């Protein structure tokens, strides 16, 4: 294992210290328990939007803390959900009197820890669970679909709604609408190495790719020969399109995401193919996001996310946002 | 002979040692069908338990168990944090303020721990989780006569067998469930850690 770290044990707190140094105008990092909080929190009268999850997916979630997106993020250990006391601390630091909405990705650990925190919180707290990964089928016999790329879009859109003054019930309803309209799927060309494990989480031959991966280095559903970019894009996009289903005439946001190790040149290449494929289907790409926003450490690979947009979602997507990782309109 | 707060503390110290010894094994098991954090998360949690036991001296067994519960909930994360935390919390409630635990109290605590894990995680036997180790352990504990050590030893034996039974199972809960059929052929890390903890408690009770 070769990584830019001092000690596997302190990776997360060491990174958080650097994040504080880099973005002290936007956020404040608290330790014990670890919570990344918007610099001007609590904002009086505003619903607090809080998320969190294992570390290793940067910029998710701490990189989305700031005006127009998250009020707080709770970073767990690498690929490990945060603990209830982190979530409780985040709620206490950000509740401006209008309650808090917890955005939870659908993983057993995340759901259990956020659920425990929700039961213990003294503020009014609601939570929504995002499960946009179409790679997981058969939901009666699994922990259900995972929360992946759609989480980024959800946090942006609901964050904008809270910023304009929507109340808790409205934020929760909007979140449910976004969750109902977004689907994703990802693939890996390489595995990733969790610092405390020291070895890759799975082995892939040079000519293989893993289709339907999650964001924790867990293997996917299917291992196939790595083909061309066009084959890869359609291997991801077809199941996404079929699932909702998306249809001709739909207006969408297309989010082409790197798993961390795929360079932008390949990502743009894939994005161009995806745009063409959607145009061929009569689907209008109204907004797009391309880059590394929800990652799996240094994994090479990508995910594609489609969100079916309505006018309100477009307005909220375009609204000003000022965070380390997303910034426009300011 | 009953089991005092000091005995429970000794059992937990032994358990922490076992978790440390088996950290890498649990990481490897979890890498195969999960995300590879189980061994490290438990090591972190039980290390935190040890340092609290170094500075605090809870007077009753139930209070020791509660200290373990709150420490695990706030330090482990993942699914194991809330699940083991809930298990110890329910076990603590089940023994109340008793100064010494007899065999019935221990069996009751195990049953309460299982009920808590099932309520929180919603898993049933056959889902390839810690429930597959804990359920037969509780049944064995309830059916054995004799000392606390005998009860825990029967529970540990049954848990080991229960953990082994997860190998051919297809996971239906937790992150391993994403693998579908590919999860078969692997020992479930949560069932394994449950079996290790019960064995450590049993060995400590035999020495007490």
Task: Label this structure with key terms.
heterodimer; A: 330 residues; alpha/beta; Rossmann fold; Hypothetical Protein Tm841, Chain: A,domain 3; 6-stranded mixed β-sheet; 8 helices; 14 strands; B: 208 residues; mainly alpha; Serine Threonine Protein Phosphatase 5, Tetratricopeptide repeat; 9 helices; globular
What kind of sheet is the major sheet of chain B? Answer: none
- Spans of chain B of 5+ residues with little confidence (pLDDT < 50)? none
Give a count of the beta strands of chain A, DSSP E runs of length 2 or more.
14
Class per helix and strand makeup of chain A: alpha/beta
Helix-strand sequence of chain A: HEEEEHEHEHHEEEHEHEEHEE
Report the top-level CATH class of the largest domain in chain A: Alpha Beta
Helical fraction of chain A equals: 25-40%
Biggest interface, CB < 8 A: A-B, 38 and 34 residues
Count of domains of chain A: 2
**What gap, in angstroms, lies between the N and C termini of chain B?**
10 Å
Description of the molecule:
Chain A: InterPro entries: DhaK_1, DhaK_dom, Dihydroxyacetone_Kinase. Chain A: This is Dihydroxyacetone kinase subunit DhaK. Chain A: Residues 7-328 form the DhaK domain. The complex is a heterodimer of chains A (330) and B (208). Chain A contains 8 helices and 14 strands. With 330 residues, chain A is α/β, with parallel strands linked by helices. Chain A folds into 2 domains: 12-181, Rossmann fold (3-Layer(aba) Sandwich); 182-316, Dihydroxyacetone kinase, domain 2 (Hypothetical Protein Tm841, Chain: A,domain 3, 2-Layer Sandwich), CATH 3.30.1180.20. In chain A, α7 links the parallel β10 (251-258) and β11 (284-291). In chain A, α2 packs across α3 (108-120), α4 (150-163) packs antiparallel against α5 and α6 packs across α7 (264-280). Chain A starts with 10 loop residues before the first helix and ends with a strand. By secondary structure, chain B is mainly alpha-helical. Chain B has a single domain (5-207), classed as DhaL domain (Serine Threonine Protein Phosphatase 5, Tetratricopeptide repeat). Chain B contains 9 helices and no strands. The radius of gyration of chain B is 16 Å and the shape is globular. At the A-B interface, β4 and α3 of A face α3, α4 and α5 of B.
């Amino acid at each position: 294992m070769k990584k830019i770290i001092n000690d596997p044990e302190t990776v997360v707190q060491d990174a958080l210290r650097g994040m504080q140094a880099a973005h002290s105008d936007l956020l404040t990092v608290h330790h014990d328990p670890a919570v990344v909080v918007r610099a001007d929190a609590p904002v009086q009268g505003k619903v607090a939007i809080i998320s969190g999850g294992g570390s290793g997916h940067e910029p998710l979630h701490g990189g989305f803390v700031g005006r127009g997106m998250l009020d707080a993020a709770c970073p767990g250990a690498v690929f490990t959900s945060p603990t209830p006391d982190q979530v409780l601390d985040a709620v206490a630091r950000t509740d401006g009197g209008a309650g808090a909405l917890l955005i939870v990705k659908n993983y057993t650990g995340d759901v259990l820890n956020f659920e425990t925190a929700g039961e213990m919180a003294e503020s009014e707290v609601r939570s929504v669970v995002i499960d946009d990964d179409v790679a997981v089928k058969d939901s009666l016999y699994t922990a259900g679909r995972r929360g992946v790329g759609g989480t980024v879009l959800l946090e942006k859109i609901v964050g904008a709604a809270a910023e304009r003054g929507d109340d808790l019930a409205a934020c929760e309803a909007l979140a449910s609408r976004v969750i109902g309209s977004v689907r994703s799927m990802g693939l890996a060309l390489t595995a990733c190495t969790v610092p405390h494990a020291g070895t890759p989480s799975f082995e892939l031959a040079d000519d293989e790719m893993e289709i339907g991966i999650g964001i924790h280095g867990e293997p996917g559903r299917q291992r196939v020969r790595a083909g061309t970019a066009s084959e890869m894009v359609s291997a991801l996009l077809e199941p996404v399109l079929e699932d909702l289903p998306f249809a001709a005439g739909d207006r969408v946001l297309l989010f082409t995401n790197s798993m961390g190790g795929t360079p932008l040149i390949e990502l743009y290449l894939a994005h161009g193919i995806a745009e063409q494929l959607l145009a061929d289907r009569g689907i209008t790409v109204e907004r797009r996001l391309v880059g590394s926003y929800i990652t799996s450490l240094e994994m090479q690979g990508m995910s594609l996310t489609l969100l079916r947009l309505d006018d309100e979602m477009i307005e909220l997507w375009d609204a000003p946002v000022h965070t380390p990782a997303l910034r426009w309109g300011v | 002979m009953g089991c005092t707060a000091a005995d429970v503390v000794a059992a937990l110290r032994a358990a922490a040692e076992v978790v440390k010894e088996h950290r890498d094994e649990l990481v490897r098991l979890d890498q195969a069908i999960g995300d590879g954090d189980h061994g490290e998360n438990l090591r972190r949690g039980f290390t935190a338990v040890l340092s609290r036991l170094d500075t605090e001296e809870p007077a009753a067994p139930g209070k020791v168990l509660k200290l373990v519960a709150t420490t695990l909930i706030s330090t482990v994360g993942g699914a194991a944090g809330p699940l083991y935390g809930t298990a110890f919390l329910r076990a603590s409630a089940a023994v109340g303020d008793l100064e010494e635990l007899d065999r019935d109290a221990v069996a009751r605590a195990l049953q309460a721990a299982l009920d808590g894990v099932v309520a929180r995680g919603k898993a049933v036997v056959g889902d390839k989780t810690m429930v597959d180790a804990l359920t037969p352990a509780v049944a064995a504990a309830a059916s054995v006569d004799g000392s606390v050590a005998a009860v825990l030893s029967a529970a540990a034996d049954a848990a080991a067998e229960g953990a082994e039974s997860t190998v051919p199972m297809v996971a239906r809960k937790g992150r391993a469930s994403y693998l579908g059929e590919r999860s078969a052929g692997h020992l479930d890390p949560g069932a394994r850690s449950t079996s290790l903890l019960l064995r450590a408690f049993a060995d400590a009770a035999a020495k007490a």
